[in-house]
Specification:
15 strands, binds arginine, TIM Barrel, alpha/beta, 7-stranded mixed β-sheet, Urease, subunit C, domain 1, 2 domains, globular, 14 helices, 36% helix
């Protein structure tokens, strides 16, 4: 009986792992792609084929050249009526949770409540065509646990880089302010003041699984401190964040809305500015000089203004959103025109996971061509993640992370909101 149960278990485990894990056997698949977006060269090719072996892309090119290389018995996926693209990358998510009621979230949800539902959002994100995410802040190392479970094939989700606890100052965007000073939460703290505390916190995060460091360089919207854009670390502190993080071979993503905080973070050498709402001309020039990416969540404003009053968020937060929402879009357009590097990042988790692609339409409305918008979520994003060897393009050697849509995304970028096919690491997800 025990043995039967054990072998049943094994069968079940094998079945699950073949569904969830990337295909590790050397199974060969041929995808016929009617149209294929060549994100590196910014063009759309027709009648292409992709040969996949195991979890990697082996060959890609005109169908007539590639198809004959497929061994007999290779699985064939016919996407000849679709447009095929590399799996999308969102460089700014908080995949472990989603907003509910403001006070309920603070006072009635434990980290364990968050942890048990995180995988649901990971799956939604993957099914929406986002095969890689850079998750920029979560409590209690839930992001590390989720990433590890996905990598082990235990749950379905995108490839993840995780930032663990956001690093912020006392009273800053990552602190809980506006409540009684006697209120204490028993959680790991991402609060650090001064160079020594900052260095120690970074070491602690990297020890416990951080792939990158998230710095809260300025105030924010969804927190109760007064000014939305004020810097919250000195230049010296920001320099220490970047220097310490680099020592461990990692990059820094800086949350920054205000002009001065953006400049401090860029001078310190962060890899990306998140939000960038109130950036000025000097900040734009600095970003260009330093090659920093702008990751601007320009869909967010729509959702916050439509839903957050209903969710019980204090008026002062809604007022702060009104100060940055429109300005952020206009400044995004200025940065695009000036030639700042753009990577796609949505802040999904402020709005529902799986809606990530809604931001593409805004990026096109505010200055990018549809091809540039797609590049921001593929080649550029992969570059920001230092993962150009594995994701971000359909190219031999990279993971077979491939999506398809039924209509032409170059003619209408909103078709990316309805992805019809998703493959991650050679395994068909949808
Ligand atoms: N997490 C960000 C913050 O609280 C969200 C900003 C949303 N607003 C926007 N316009 N992008 O600061």
């Amino acid at each position: 009986m025990i043995r039967r149960a054990a072998s049943l278990c094994l069968v079940t485990l094998l079945a699950i792992s073949s569904v969830l894990a990337q295909s590790t056997s050397k199974e060969v698949t041929l995808i016929k792609a009617g149209r294929l977006v060549d994100v590196k060269n910014g063009r759309v090719l027709t009648d292409q084929a992709i040969l996949i072996e195991g979890d990697r892309i082996k060959e890609v090119g005109p169908s007539k050249d590639i198809a004959p290389h497929a061994p007999p018995g290779a699985k064939v996926i016919d996407l000849s009526n679709s447009t095929v693209l590399p799996g999308l990358i969102d460089c700014h998510t908080h995949v472990t949770s989603q907003p509910g009621n403001y006070y309920e979230d603070i006072f009635r949800r434990s980290p364990i409540d968050v942890a048990v539902t995180a995988h649901v959002y990971a799956k939604r994100t993957l099914e929406a065509g986002f095969t890689t995410i850079r998750d920029v802040g979560a409590g209690e190392f839930i992001d590390v646990a989720l990433r590890n479970a996905i990598n082990a094939g235990s749950v379905a989700g995108p490839r993840m880089q995780v930032a663990t606890l956001t690093i912020g100052s006392t009273g800053g965007h990552g602190d809980i302010t506006g409540f009684s000073p006697y209120l204490k939460f028993g959680s790991f703290s991402g609060i650090a003041d001064g160079v020594d505390e900052i260095r120690k916190l970074i070491r602690f995060e990297i020890k416990n699984g951080a792939d990158l460091i998230k710095l809260l360089a300025t105030a924010g919207v969804l927190s109760e401190e007064e000014s939305v854009g004020a810097p919250q670390f000195s230049q010296e502190e920001m320099n220490a964040v970047v220097e310490e993080t680099a020592m461990w071979g990692k990059k820094v993503a800086a949350h920054a809305h205000g002009a001065e905080g953006i400049k401090r973070a860029v001078r310190a050498g962060v890899a990306s500015i998140e939000h960038g709402s109130l950036i000025d001309d000097e900040g734009i020039q600095l970003m260009k000089q330093k090659g920093a990416y702008l990751v601007a969540d320009i869909y967010n404003d729509d959702y916050i203004l439509a839903e957050y009053t209903r969710l019980g968020y204090p008026d002062k937060i809604i007022e702060k959103e009104k100060k940055v929402g429109r300005a952020q879009r206009e400044n995004f357009q200025r940065a695009v025109k000036a030639g700042v590097k753009i990577a796609f990042g949505t802040d999904a988790g402020v709005y529902p996971h799986g809606w990530n692609a809604k931001q593409f339409a805004h990026m096109v409305r505010w200055g990018l061509t549809p091809m540039q918008a797609i590049q921001s979520a593929t080649v550029n994003a992969a570059d920001l993640l230092s993962w150009s060897d594995r994701v971000g393009a359909i190219e031999p050697g990279r993971f077979a992370d491939i999506i398809a849509v039924n209509r032409d995304p170059i003619a209408d970028i909103t078709v990316l909101e309805q992805v019809s096919f998703v493959m991650k690491g050679g395994a068909v997800i949808k």
